[in-house]
Each structure stands twice: as C-alpha cells, then as structure tokens.
Amino acid sequence: MKRLQPSPASLCVLLAAFWCAACAPDDTAPGAPAGETRGQPAVPVAIAKVVQKPMPIEIRVIGSAEAYSTVTIRAQTTGQLVKVNFREGDEVTRGQVLFEMDRRPLEAALQQAQANLERDMAQAANAAVQSKRLQDLVERGIAPREQADTSRTAVAALNATVNADRAAVENAQVQLQYATITAPISGRTGALMVHEGNLVRANDTIPLVTINQVSPVSVSFAIPESRLTELNRYRAQGSLRVLATPPNDEVPSVGQIAFVDNSVDQNTGTIRIKGTFPNTDRRLWPGQFVNVVVTLTTDPEAVVVPSVAVQDGQQGPYVFTVKDDQTVEMRPVKVARTRGVETVVAGGLQAGETVVTDGHLRLVPGTRISFKTSSVEQVAQ
Predict the structure, then answer these.
(1) What is d(CA 255, CA 218) in angstroms, rounded to the nearest whole number?
(2) Mean pLDDT in order along the chain per 10 residues (381 residues)
(3) Does domain 103-178 fall into CATH 1.10.287?
(4) What pTM was computed for the model?
C-alpha cells in the first residue's frame, strides 16, 4: 500500500493553528467564582434590605355578612289587609305600625264576647241570691236540703261560665290587637309580598315582609382547627379585633369576635366564628362576601423581606443574598407568614442583609451583579 505524505501547505496550516491555541489568553479570571468569566457582563438586579420591625400575627379568611337578627312578619289572624304604612326597603323602628287589617269583624266578636260575659255575670249573681235564700229556708226547716245543694251547684257552674266568658273577651281583645301589625325590631324591610286589598290568613306560609337588622351586623367566617388553640389563647387575654373589607373597597370595618362555635366541622376541619360590627355607615350588607382579618397579636422583632425576594425551589423557598464583592449567594429560608407585599422570615436571614428583588431568572450562585438605580435609592432609604 502506498503511504500518503502531507503536503507543505497543510503542514503550515497545522503549525499556525497550534501556535494560536498556545498563545490565546485565559478568559477565566484568577480567583473568580464558579460560573463567572471576564467576558460575561454583570447582571442588573433590584435589591432591598432585610429589616426587623413589628409585624402583626393575623388570620386571613373569607367570610360573609349576616343580619344581626331577622324577623319574618306573618299575620296572626285572618282578615283583609287594608293599609300598608311603609315602602319596600324602608328603615323601620321597633313598635312602628306596618300593616292594618280590617278591624270590624274582630270588634264585633269582642262586643259579642263582652255581652255574653255580662249576661252570665247577671245569671250568676241571681243564682247566688237564690242559693242564699234556700239556705235560710233549709236552716229554718222549711225547704229540703237537696234544693240548697242544687242551687249551690248552679252558682258554681255559672261562676265557671263567667270565667270562660272573661277568657273569651281577652282572646277577642288579643285578636283585635293582631289587626294592627307593628315592627318587633328596628331594621330594614325587604320585598313586600302581600299588598293592600288581599285576604291574609293566620300563619300563612307566605310572609308579609322580612325585616333584617343591619346595624349592628354580624360577619360569619371559618378558621382552620389548627389555629383554634392560638385564637383561644389570645382571646382569653382580651377581646380580639376583626377587620372586614367588602370587595373593591380599601377601608375595612372594625368589629369584635362575639361567638365561637362549640364544635369543629369534621367535613372541612374548620370552626365557625362570628364577629359583631356596629355598621353605622351600612358598608356591610347581609349576604355579602368580605375579606376577614383577625389580629391575634404583634411580633415586635419580626425579620421582614419583600415578598418578591422569596423564590420557590425544589428544596423549598430561597432568596439571593448580595455579598460584599457584588456576587450573589443562594440562601434557603423558612417563611413564617406573608402579609401583603411583605414576608416574615423565621430563619435563614438576618436584619441588615441585602436580597435581590428583581432579576432572579439570570442568576446562579456566584453571578456578578450590578444595581439598578431605583433599588439603590430604596436601600438607602
């Protein structure tokens, strides 16, 4: 087999390539962190300081407003509805006349009962006189004793009839009072279900109107059973404040916890709580969903970072901290709780350290960074 010999031109090309590779400078900076080279630019990031300050310990849930009390108005006697003294949705006060029914049949029934009472009282008085006369005749031996016993029995029967008549008169008076329906509580009326001219029946299934007491108002919500012990501990130290904020509203209403249910719902693992709110401004409305915040206490020395600084990784939450040489370090942290744009850290950070709040996607441990102007001003503040 014929052996191939390299040509002079190819030998020159190989020697030139070898010489360039041997003379090329090393791009890796002496002592540079792993993953950083002289040719890579610094990554611009936003930063913020880790601070230590008082932070409230809270329970945040969704609740719903409920009427403090609800009364469904129904007629207690049968008759024609002749007058309605309010409009739908009006605010009414306790004792205010709401409905008036036809009083004439009830007044006639009362007069009849009173007449029966007067008749029977007269008969009873006459029977008592006759019984006394017979008793005198019996004592003188003129009349038999049986007649005296019969007369006393008649007197007792007529007295019982008089008592029954008095009860009938009282019942007729009560029925007459039912013809005028007043508000048992102060509150706001709902839709009017029966209008003037209709015949209403006693205890009908359809109510005349429903009154909801909205000042004060209740807010019902449920908390996890795991936080019940904590709630009871702080509640024993004093009344707990509750904040309720309606949707699309920024100003919360302030109330107090008034009720803790006596059992945990085993289906949901939660327990029902109620708060009472004065609601003088009518900002809470029955049936409305609200954001509820129960403030248990305040941690005076909480370690706080912006929530955007905390990232979720396979090993749990972490942050990028800034070192003195303007490189970053990945630091695992333990998150205690989050409140709005701030996160309370229970471990992994100390007050005064600097963390990255923006630009995480381009960072790895040891990456050199540069600071955005706005973030430097924020740290200086």
Answers:
(1) 9
(2) 48 44 42 46 92 92 95 94 95 96 95 95 89 77 76 89 95 95 95 94 93 96 94 88 91 93 94 95 94 92 94 92 93 90 92 93 91 60 50
(3) yes
(4) 0.69
